[in-house]
């Protein structure tokens, strides 16, 4: 069953669908009430207020829950909202809640690029080391769902996989310019640099940070994973010196101490990896900030607010076709 | 006539060649003397000391001069040096001094990639604006010689052209990942971002900073060049709004105020350009640092000193073939 | 017709005047409503809430509009407000909206000091270069209106002119102490340093940042203006070397990279200009902060909040007559 | 007896004069020797080396000593030096060693301006408080000799007095622009802000930091002086609240914590004082840096080295007469 | 009469007690009202809103007042509040308002440890200098009440005394490890380092910063106190050099300029004091942050918000008994 | 055989002993030569120069070698040196080279305190986890030799053990003040926080950084060690949650990201550990700086140079007996 397109549902539209609870806000003040933000893969819609008399309706509904909602799209001061007639939590195992979350969509093409790159790795010990992760079905199953952050860049199901491929793509393009660079090692760095995020986030309806993610951090958690998987093999798939190269890539990818790297990049491949990671993360954040209409009230071209993911910069919506003929015109016949 | 290979000339070898004066050091102390560092495209070699009694020989010899030298390779405490019998300054117009400087070599392939990219630009106004520079033979003649810095990354004849192509290459690879990014505009940013370096450096035998380079800086000098060339055309090849987009790319490419950008990147293309510029510059610096034997006395793998071009990091020489068969083995038959 | 004195109008006073719309706030929450802040040269007064039933009254009213208002001064929880009976937007060309904005008042005395200084400049090429701007009636007409910022120091009609004279005054006083300093050049720096603000702000009823102001910045926009005006003359009114001196003054006046100067001050005059600019801007901000009663609730002497224009400092209201006889006493006979 | 003009004495000139020992350098290496830098009010001249065989000649000669020297100006590698025939330390009380130190010269005109300003102070309590210092002959005798730093700005006998007048001059010029500013209080701040330097430096032949200057600092030492002198009077010449105003001026004049101010400026007068102090100190440093030929080898216009007193900036020697007729031409006829 | 335990009073409980007014909030918006936060030594409880019709009840009630309240504990959206029937301000001299404030409790044991340490000081001049403060009953009476901050660490009556003992305890433990350290001097530093807080805070019902605390700061105020008390004795109880040592301890204890120390620690004892001070202050802040349930909504182990007293860190509630038998089990039998 | 006391050997003394080569300096210049710095547990002594004609004598002698030296103490410009008659490298296994290195001396008393503390740990799982390291003879053998740094604090054989005990001592003293703190866990943090230094340094005659120490860092290397040892046991000696607590202590002990901690302290015990570590390291550095006569030429009380281990501070030698009777006087009889 197709999901209703929340951002475009007309006033008066009747809704009777499973939705995710994206946010629960208990507003205090003189007229306390609760507002839920409901969402599916198409976007989000807030509910009309639940007043204290309706408190029972929303009791026990938490962030990340899947709910069956019956209601009507109404309007309040030019903002659309959902007047809820009934709402109830669905058992998690009866719903495809993943289908309701923000997602990069089909992961197949990202896997294909990644696995194609892996297949061309020249050094068998490097290939075997990566295979400890990327040939493991459990690892793949989790990796293709994990987001790359909880609220920043690539915060979507599969976001980590997409980010990984972007980093590899940019890193390989850079490595190609430098004959001294070991492109296979850059690729390995891209594939391993964020594996610690698997232990740092959960995505069961909402993107949350785990305790180890908060008190260890994904950088060192990734190095732990690498250390444990490699050492669990007898003999190890690579040498101690080679493992050191990989550990250095993972541990230095944030580039400098103040951004959480316990060690700075000291090899050509670590330097390339760091800039590729940054380019993917920051460009994605810029892309999202430019795409968010809330940054541009009244259609002004320069954002009214600064964006924390971009170190508190404002962003500027501007483009031009530079006189190019419309692409459509080429199609003519 | 081929240039002698300075780094490998054996002891006792006789030299009778034009060389560049790369450095002039007047050493004080109890036994004052002068040492010249001479160079050609193959590398460098210091002279034996010129004692006060030889002062006449080196009088008037300055950094960047071309000299005809007759001498013999000798050794002093395991370091090779050139015992100079005669040295005289050559008139600049009688020598191909450019052939003696560090250089990226043939510029043809870099121009080809750059011009091929330009040829595929969709917007005629953007193409015409870039053509103001890149179809101007005088601009090209200077651009293909200019270094990208005096002592940092790409400090070689043609270094700016090579850096430009690297930035465009990385920038285009990144832009391809983001459907919202205007790849042509990223290309334009790459081609324009450092044009101010033409006014910032000289390379007449030595790489030097000009006064405008020191007191205005290449970022704003580039914006000046862009402003003047575009406004000199009537009508302008692009609109005012489009010129603003280009100015923003040039002015923001250093990424943040403390690195000399008068404005931070606020568009997707400016963000991509900034990271591509950084990736090219920093990877090149890392490449050079790893290639410099003076960083690695006694063959130790971690550099004995920190590298200022890399924000005072140490660098690590390490690689592995990861068990890959020697490439040569593949060729046999 | 004199403007009503908004800060002192008594309760019950009847108002029937043109006013500026200084702020439009749509407040959400349980009881959404709109409040306008109206102003004239005397100060500001908020309206009573416009409830949804009055929405039609304020539809289409935007920041910076001039409105004809009929209403009565009322009170709500000890805060005066304007209960609006009728409000309508006036055509901009029928109103002297400038008279309603915060303003430095008569600009004549500031012009006089500035032009007197100009008249005493010894170097004819410097005088002619400044005259390109300061003898241009269009430039003067805009310069005497432009604010020096949108919400910081000298945010008033004519604020830029006043700030310019202050900077020149302090700069000349400093230059007089240093025989090596070229006082005329310091004056030129003061007169040119902020000309880019003409392209950075609008003041049509409200002080707003333009797109070029946001994406290029007033520092470089000023250098552009200087470059274009000087080069538009044939022959140029000054030499290339002299233009370089002026560009350096404009581009370095923020003092250090992290404050948006693409180059740091490197001449005596640039150093003097920088400190004079800072002294004017920061002292004005301090003056305004001390004058703002909202910083001092309950008449406490140390401000209850920090002031962002002063790098998040608190300010202290303190003074003493140190036992001096009252000035009034001197008047007597 | 006039002092010989050290910077211009011709080769072969015979010298038989008292000089100050500005620097004593024991150079190690293969040929250890000692070089003295000797100076008087005209400038400095290094000696030829004292070899170990001459060690007895320089035994016991320390920085700041006054010596009677007999010698001849010679040259060594284009640098003038003094070949010393005989040198002996003079008893300090037999020489006018102050006449040999760098100095601002006659202090009378600086005192006159300062005392004239004091005479016009309106508040008697403020005047009396300043008089505790500025009517005290012992204070004046020391103040007119004290330098403003040991090796930075105004490092000369009387430098502190000159700096004080400069700060007052710039501060009063600024205060005049702001009706809310208490110009007398700004003046008081200028006169008191650096009194702690009297306890921080010695100038008995050399400028040295005292132990209290190093372990307390001149800012707090100044506040101590103020506190002790004011409280030693019964009744105090000003009120506790007024003393607090003065303490705040002294303690905040460095402007921000990282520059050693224990508290930031929070009043209009403290803000004005801070910028006036900075303007005097930094402009003087820039003036000195531009005047130092060692910054400009080979007459290049941009300094070859960075200047630590200017936060590691380079400086630029550039000026122009802008086409002004030579001042001399006006005189003749 | 025992104080009611505010955090645990059941719904419906009747209250008729003196309480402190900890906070007064006038909330604006559509339904303006006032809420008081009332407290005693057991904790705090907010009142139900006072609507405009009740405005008279709360007129003139300010932060820090003691009020006699009659009311009932009610609930509003799961948060307990006090429905106030009557409230009136009590004359300050009729109430033991100190008993109602947060407090470290009995100060006797802290005094005992401090005085025991003092009794063992070997140097009589050091002991006499400390006795100027610690044998003065007025000083002791104020010191044992003063908080160590208004809203940060040890913000309680007696907090300064407790913090002082902690600093001494840690400092002495550190000094014991270093034979070169003068443990008595470390103790003196601990006892003197924060005496300026007596002039910086008031605690008459609320913890407030004084004007001198804001415009001079407790560091320098402490040095003033030390300077005045020591110099008021004739002869001084210690030498000038010894006083310098003590001043250095007080002035450097914040460790670096950016944290408000006008001078950095330069002796072994000053270094030890600085770390002991930091250890006490930061550990106390961490302790309080972990103890504050508002940091841990929904019982999540990692705090939902960052803590400004800890430089914006999050904190983590975690512990384990590591398999230790319950302490209680040991007691039984 | 006792070692000769190098710092006090008189001129003319004859030396025939094994010594360590602490430094090898090849000095270039006009008279190139080599100087060795030789040392034993008593201190250091430089050799007289080895001129090129003696080059054979020092060929192959490297830092860290043990040499048998025959020579005589001579003097050169007031500095003692060793004129070497013969020098030869001793086989490492024939010499007790450890006896020649700087050392904390007998390690027994440090082990005793450490093991006593361990014996009192209440939680068996914590005790067992620590025992994995501290009951392992190989670990102990290495731990009691390892320095705590190569050139900073505790750079001596056994320095790490001494530093560990100091951190535990200060940490336990702090923990005792906070009832919420788990003192056993603080002890565990002290014992584990620097175990990664075992993999980061070598001490075979010289203190050197290993490659893993440089490219991973001791913080993460320590976490690796902990992870591997604990997981190598089946079942693990502690729970996963407990291991997380220990990992957090190790990884956060540097306190903030810019000092190389990949995560900041978030528990009470981690905060205490961080300050205890800092107090030990910085106090030791201060102690060493004050003890180094090279910092205090001419017996001046304030160091002539800044100390990099103390963030470029100067240090001050000052003490007083405060009038205490000489300890010796107490001994009388």
Structural account:
The structure is a homohexamer of 333-residue chains. Chain A is an alpha+beta fold and 333 residues long. Chain A is 35% helix and 16% strand. The first copy, chain A, has a five-stranded antiparallel β-sheet with strand order 3-2-1-4-5. Chain A has a two-stranded antiparallel sheet with strand order 6-7. In chain A, helix 5 (159-175) packs antiparallel against helix 6 (183-192), helix 8 packs antiparallel against helix 9 (240-252) and helix 9 runs parallel beside helix 10. Chain A starts with 13 loop residues before the first strand and ends in a 42-residue tail after the last helix. The model of chain A is unreliable at 329-333 (pLDDT under 50). Chains A and B meet through helix 3, helix 5, helix 9 and helix 10 of A and helix 3, helix 5, helix 10 and helix 11 of B.
Quick structural summary:
Chain A has helices spanning 55-58, 108-119, 124-134, 137-143, 159-175, 183-192, 211-215, 218-232, 240-252, 268-291; strands at 14-27, 33-40, 43-46, 66-76, 79-89, 201-202, 208-209. With 333 residues, the first copy, chain A, is α+β, with helices and mostly antiparallel strands.
Which features characterize this protein?
homohexamer; 333 residues; alpha+beta; five-stranded antiparallel β-sheet; two-stranded antiparallel ribbon; 7 strands; globular; disordered C terminus
């Amino acid at each position: 069953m197709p999901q209703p397109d929340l951002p475009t549902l007309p006033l008066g539209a009747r809704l009777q669908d499973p939705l995710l609870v994206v946010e629960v806000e208990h507003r205090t003040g003189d007229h306390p009430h609760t507002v839920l933000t409901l969402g599916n893969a198409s976007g989000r819609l807030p509910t009309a207020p639940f007043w204290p008399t309706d408190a029972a309706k929303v009791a026990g509904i938490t962030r990340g829950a899947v709910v069956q909602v019956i209601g009507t799209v109404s309007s309040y001061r030019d903002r659309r909202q959902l007047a809820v007639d009934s709402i109830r939590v669905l058992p998690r195992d009866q719903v495809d809640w993943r289908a309701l979350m923000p997602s990069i969509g089909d992961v197949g093409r990202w896997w294909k690029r990644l696995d194609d790159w892996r297949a061309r790795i020249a050094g068998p010990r490097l290939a075997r080391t990566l295979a400890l992760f990327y040939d493991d079905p459990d690892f793949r199953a989790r990796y293709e769902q994990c987001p790359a952050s909880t609220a920043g860049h690539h915060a979507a199901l599969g976001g980590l996989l997409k980010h990984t491929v972007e980093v590899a793509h940019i890193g390989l393009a850079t490595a190609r310019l430098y004959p001294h660079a070991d492109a296979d090692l850059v690729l390995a760095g891209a594939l391993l640099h964020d594996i610690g995020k698997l232990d740092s986030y959960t995505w069961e309806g909402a993107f949350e940070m785990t305790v180890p993610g908060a008190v260890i951090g994904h950088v060192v958690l990734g190095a732990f994973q690498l250390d444990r998987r490699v050492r669990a093999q007898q003999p190890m798939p690579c040498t101690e010196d080679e493992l050191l190269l990989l550990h250095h890539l993972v541990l230095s990818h944030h580039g400098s101490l103040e951004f959480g790297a316990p060690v700075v990049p000291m090899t050509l491949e670590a330097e390339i990896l760091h800039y590729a990671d940054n380019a993917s993360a920051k460009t994605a954040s810029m892309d999202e900030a430019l795409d968010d209409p809330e940054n541009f009230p009244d259609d002004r071209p320069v954002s009214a607010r600064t964006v924390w993911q971009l170190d508190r910069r404002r962003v500027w919506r501007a483009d031009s076709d530079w006189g190019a003929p419309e692409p459509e015109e080429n199609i003519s016949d």
